[in-house]
Amino acid sequence: MHFPHIQSALPAVAVAFDADPAEAADTRRRILAQAAGEQWLIAGMHLASAGFARLEAVDDGYRIAYQQD
Asked: InterPro entries attached here (predicted)?
């Protein structure tokens, strides 16, 4: 995801880099659901300075919950 805080909360939000926006949104929904359900520890260049987080399901999307020391 290029904009994790937006695209985790609203998985249908596409960016110009999505070759197939509908398929990209479906993939985001599937992976986000699995990551939240299995409590994956996620990391990525586009996350805030904390760098590591887990996802929590909220409404129709997900919230990024950063790991605390």
From this structure: RibonucZ/Hydroxyglut_hydro (IPR036866)
| Dist. CA 65–CA 69, nearest whole Å | 13
* DSSP H helices in the chain: 4-9, 21-37
Question: pLDDT tens digits for the chain (69 residues)?
Answer: 888 889 999 999 999 999 999 999 999 999 999 999 999 999 888 787 777 899 999 999 999 998 775
Domain ranges of the chain: 4-66
C-alpha span between 53 and 62 (Å, rounded): 12
Asked if 63 and 55 count as a contact pair (C-beta separation under 8 A), the reply is: yes
pTM for this predicted structure: 0.85
